[in-house]
From TrEMBL:
Organism superkingdom: Bacteria
Signal in keyword set: yes
GO cellular-component term (any): photosystem II
Lineage of the species this protein comes from: Bacteria, Pseudomonadati, Pseudomonadota, Gammaproteobacteria, Alteromonadales
GO biological process: photosynthesis
Segment forming the signal sequence: 1-20
Pfam family, one: PSII_BNR
Record's keyword terms, sorted: Coiled coil, Photosynthesis, Photosystem II, Signal
UniProt-listed PANTHER family: PHOTOSYSTEM II STABILITY/ASSEMBLY FACTOR HCF136, CHLOROPLASTIC, PHOTOSYSTEM II STABILITY_ASSEMBLY FACTOR HCF136, CHLOROPLASTIC
The Photosynthesis system II assembly factor Ycf48/Hcf136-like domain, residue ranges: 176-261
Coiled-coil stretches: 131-158
Name of the protein in its database record: Photosynthesis system II assembly factor Ycf48/Hcf136-like domain-containing protein
Length: 381
């Protein structure tokens, strides 16, 4: 199962009719990329895909371009957003600079703590970047086949060319039907340097706060174009990509070069985090959870006591790891002995995002909107 399938599940049953009726462009054609997000009185009940915080500032994003922000202990407030695409991820560089990614190749930037947003990338611009880049790769592979020293080498390049041809055909279809490629994550390591990643092995990097982007797809050993679901980094600045088919990559030079890591699981991995001890956790399909104490060189399986997909995770102030997934599943993992306590949110819904809120309270987002859960007390250690 792919991360895109999770996003589809989240928005299943949500009608576009009301939105389309109230949002029409000048040429009377609804284009979800350019139509502002509808302002509604019950925005907290929207479908949300992600939630995050920085100091006392919080943000939640979701369907129809919905963005809610909250300062300190105040109420959640919907803000104006210049797109109605399904938004997927959030990245803080600092308290003021925030990036959000979404479907149809959309990336948003705020430079005032989320009060206002600018669309700095969309699927049309992405297509204009990708198509000539793909054509250049095609010419390079054709030349490599001609220059191959033996049949085995030629066959390897032919395989890569076949996979690339599929991507070129997909891009050509988008010229006819419009952009379709989603960004599944955006990740900034400082105000200037960030990455956008997503479907079919798409990986972009910016070093000027999103004003320009370079394509890094070919830096990854991912010839079949598996989806890239999540990027995280450790305290040393090493970057990790987590993806479909168990893909795990690590970069120690801010994304210029990537090493393919031996994966503990060949099903889809949806996310990851670093705990207070600096250990790497990854999780995903069918309740699979793994921990690494050596930055991804080796992994140990954690018995999660569930077969539901795990979509998101956070580390509480006391070090407890909390993972959230389908059917309201919440897993509380002791960082010392890795014992797991399983709970189910009363909503029994898909949980797509999680963060620690005030005290022992968890803020959750998903199919049922903004939710809360008071997590159990953890014994002193």
């Amino acid at each position: 199962m792919r991360m895109i399938a999770l996003l589809v599940a989240l928005v299943a049953g949500v009608s576009l009719q009301t939105v389309a009726a109230t949002n029409e462009s000048e040429n009377n054609q609804y284009d979800v990329i350019y139509e502002p997000s509808p302002q509604v009185p019950n925005a907290q009940q929207a479908v949300f895909t992600n939630i995050a915080s920085y100091l006392d500032h919080s943000i939640a994003v979701g369907a129809f371009g919905t963005i809610l922000i909250r300062e300190g202990g105040g109420d959640w407030q919907q803000v104006e957003v210049p797109t109605s695409v399904l938004l997927t991820s959030i990245s803080y560089a600092d308290a003021n600079h925030i990036w959000v990614s979404g479907h149809d190749g959309v990336i948003l930037r705020s430079q005032d703590a989320g009060a206002s947003w600018q669309r700095i990338m969309d699927g049309y611009e992405l297509l204009e970047m990708e198509y000539p880049w793909l054509q250049e790769r095609e010419q390079e592979l054709q030349q490599a086949i001609e220059n191959a020293e033996d049949e085995d080498e030629a066959y390897e390049y032919e395989y890569l060319l076949d996979e690339l041809s599929f991507m070129i055909q997909a891009a050509e279809i988008q010229f006819d039907v419009g952009p379709t490629k989603p960004f599944l994550d955006v990740h900034f390591i400082d105000v200037e340097t960030g990455f956008a990643l997503g479907a079919y092995g798409t990986l972009l990097r910016t070093t000027d706060a999103g004003n320009s982007w370079e394509i890094l797809n070919d830096r990854l050993e991912n010839p079949r174009g598996f989806h890239l679901n999540k990027m995280i980094h450790n305290d040393q600045g090493d970057l990790f990509i987590i993806g479909e088919a168990g893909l795990l990559f690590r970069s120690q030079d801010q994304g210029s070069n990537w090493d393919l890591l031996d994966s503990p699981y060949h099903g889809s991995l949806f996310g990851g985090l670093f705990d207070q001890q600096g250990r790497l956790w990854v999780y995903g399909l069918r309740g699979n959870v793994f921990i690494s104490e050596d930055d991804g060189e080796s992994f140990t399986s954690v018995e999660a006591s569930t077969r539901y997909n795990i979509n998101s995770g956070t580390v509480m102030a006391d070090g407890t790891i909390v993972l959230a997934g389908h059917s309201g599943t919440l897993l509380f993992i002791d960082p010392q002995d890795l014992s797991v306590q399983r709970f189910e949110h009363i909503s029994n819904t898909v949980l797509a995002g999680i963060m620690q809120d005030r005290g022992n309270e968890l803020a959750l987002v998903g199919r049922a909107g903004l939710l809360q859960f008071l997590y159990p007390a953890v014994p002193n250690r």
